User: Fold this.
Amino acid sequence: MTLKTVTIVSAIALSTVAATAEEVRVYNWSDYIDEELLAKFEDETGIDLIYDVFDSNELLETKMLAGGSGYDVVVPTGSFLQRQIQAGVFMPLDKDKLSNFDNVWDVIQDRTARFDPENAYSINYMWGTTGIGANIGKVTEALGDDAPIDSLELVFNPANMEKLGECGVHFLDAPDEMMPAALTYLDLDPNSHDKDDLEKAAGVLEAVRPYIQKFHSSEYINALANGDICVAFGWSGDILQARDRAAEADNGVEIAYNAPSEGALMWFDQMAIPEDAPNPEAAHKFIDFILDAQNMAAASNYVYYANGNKASQEFLAEDVIGDPAIYPTPDALENTYIKGPYPQKVQRVVTRLWTRVKSGT
Amino acid sequence: MGRHRLAVLDGHWRRLVGELMRRFLLIAIPYIWLLALFLVPFVIVLKISLSDAAIARPPYFPQFDWAEGIRAFIAELDFENFLWLVEDDLYWKAYLSSLRIALTSTALTLIVGYPIAYGMARAPEEWRPTLMMLVILPFWTSFLIRVYAWKGILSNEGFLNQFLLWSGLASEPLQILNTTTAVYIGIVYTYLPFMILPIYAALERMDDSLIEAAEDLGCSRLSAFWLVTIPLSKGGIIAGCFLVFIPAMGEFVIPSLLGGSDTLMIGKVLWEEFFSNRDWPVASAVAVILLLILVVPIVLFQRNQQKEQESEE
Assistant:
């Protein structure tokens, strides 16, 4: 055999090995990981990693409920996770297979247990708040130096929004986040399932609707960073990523994130394994890899979201652990609320109101 | 002798069976195709539309269970979801809005497509394959990428607005992206080949001497066009219009990428039911009604095709 044939034969042999090697399919939020970690996972474990992304819980939930998604690890938000557990979508985690399980942070575990009793099915990946991203220059230009950039007044008071509308405002296309915020603005219970309360919240949103350019759950990162819009109501880390991208581009855009002073929604994205995962072994290995203190810290340092991993905190960059927009002070943590899932009937009402807010019909 | 006769009979018999088999297969294949790819999925959707939403996987009840028998299963079904669609004005508004958008964009596509098809059919023969190629070429790129490209063209900082500002035609950027106008542009662009190709096929077959004859008999060029060319390309126009109208009616990708939040289309309503409400039964009911609305134009289209074929034979 010549050398050339040997290489060809071994190349073929190698490729068959690769094809039959272990594989893990992960479905996570967009812009939510340092991609170097993905390569590191493949190097360390020899498992092929297929990493897909989504930008709405609804999309993930529909795949889960249809079954046979083929994913081994998915990352739903707490309130969605709770309902999916009820529907029997997930398998309980085998903690014995998670050597880094002790790294978890009890403060977060206590809160996530409200969605997932005893944290049997899920482990926190990252958490954050939903709040206001503002382009400081444009907002002060529109509203003056005392613009309420840390208050729901900024986005729900039509007088303010009328002026901001001209420089562009995006809201999340997520009724589960926007309705509680509007309820908070009205000083009502953000978890209210009462139809009248929800109607009032929709009224708040409808009043500012004419000044909102778009409802979308991921476009605002770039739009804020490029200076296309001046305000976004969105997720903390996404807005901080926009801040970072603007700083890197050095385009004179200065972005700030503030959790609303009236109270902020605190959410938790949880790693879980679908009941019909093709490769639960590899899924546990992936979760264990993420639970590693240094890996988790690398992910947080990259995406500017806080995580539920106590041990990772010593590896966090100062502009992450030291930033109260990411790791709120204990006082600020008191000023947050957690939202539970809506029952089917209430969900209908909420979605219908949301359609009315968005389309005027 | 007797034996020979038997052999002949046997031969006849075999030929008859063979012929029957051949005919049966010929008819059976399209019917099996229809049954497997249209009727079965439709029955599944219809069945879900008669169920109730539930927190389960899949999220509806009842699931079909052989053990309980078909009668118990059917007893669980009801028309509640269809009543729901009647009660809320969102749905018929969305159907109407889709209908309006589909009709308008079909008309726009015809206005843009007809002159192109006409030009192609009148072009020198050696150019035609190239022109045909140019019409088909965009299909080599993914539909999604082409719609995304339109986002880049139509956005406030996009090529179109930059051109308008540069040329002084507009003093400030026009808001086109995220409006219904952008949806029209998207639909006309995407479905244009489906309009051009059938019209081109009809025009190309046309005999030029008919126009000459009309002009000899005193027609002006314009009236010859109206009285001869248009009627002769009618088949192509009708086929093109249906090919654009039917998919435009249920379009989801174009309105969700290019349209604004106030662009109401039934495809988006269907998405909301399915994804936001997790209400597969109501989503299925919306789909069943959409199909019923579309059955009328589909049947008309089939008739038209049949007539075309008969007139050719």
Notes: The two ends of chain B are 46 Å apart (CA to CA). Chain B is about 75% helix and 0% strand. The CA atoms of residues 105 and 185 of chain B lie 8 Å apart. Chain B has a mean pLDDT of 88.
